[in-house]
């Protein structure tokens, strides 16, 4: 069990970044520097790479290794901290990614559970996460709970109870789960020792009300100013303003989801001057006509003013 000091915790906004591709779908690492600079210009200094937003399950192991190496090189000497997602269906691949992340000096690693052959109970989940975490023993490790994608919905408070003695570098949980009842138990487990950044943009205000200090989100790529204002309003007990910002985020997510979220989110990045390319199958990429239509919808709702 690793009780991180506040400066090392994943507090504030942590952007789950896109993986950039060329138009033909090949990895385009030249864009990473532009991604990092854009996020820093919006006040974001924490990134979570190679996760769901990063299409990790559509990348080869070699591509994931190259992606982590590039992000660490681009951010070297800056204030930006990099969390590397290392989870994979193959535990050996996950361990390889974890080893590399530690060698590169990542701020932390995270891993979702294998999702084809799934752990049947919490004990097997702890054993699996423990093997991955042990490959990077000096690096803070976060279990990445995202049952909507993995189909694994084991109780996270029980995971923390069993894992605290078995995973020495466990720092907490990336909680991408709208279950705010379980979230409260995680925040209070072991006297509040765990770092539990919340991962559902559309429920962020609710999580803050429960005690969240940090959030990991894909929406922060293109809408960080909205969520920064949400955090500031909440800190000032201005809940009316916080609700306005939260609903703006919800409207954006709804619009993008109607086109296929991944492809639409990547299209929005190009609208903002950071072309991260298409999405890989089985995610869809927007046609030029769809992109134009989405641009009009975003403009009509005020999106481009909201994110200035």
TrEMBL record:
Predominant localisation class: cytoplasm
Molecular functions per Gene Ontology: N-acetylneuraminate lyase activity
SMART domains given in the database record: DHDPS
One Gene Ontology cellular component annotation held by this UniProt entry: cytoplasm
Binding residue positions for pyruvate: 53, 216
Keyword Transferase assigned: no
EC assignment: 4.1.3.3
Annotated catalytic residues: 144 (proton donor/acceptor), 174 (schiff-base intermediate with substrate)
Pfam families, alphabetized: DHDPS
InterPro entries: Aldolase_TIM (IPR013785), DapA-like (IPR002220)
Subcellular location: Cytoplasm
Superkingdom of the source species: Bacteria
Keywords linked to the UniProt accession: Carbohydrate metabolism, Cytoplasm, Lyase
Family: Belongs to the DapA family.
Descriptive protein name: N-acetylneuraminate lyase
Organism: Prosthecobacter vanneervenii
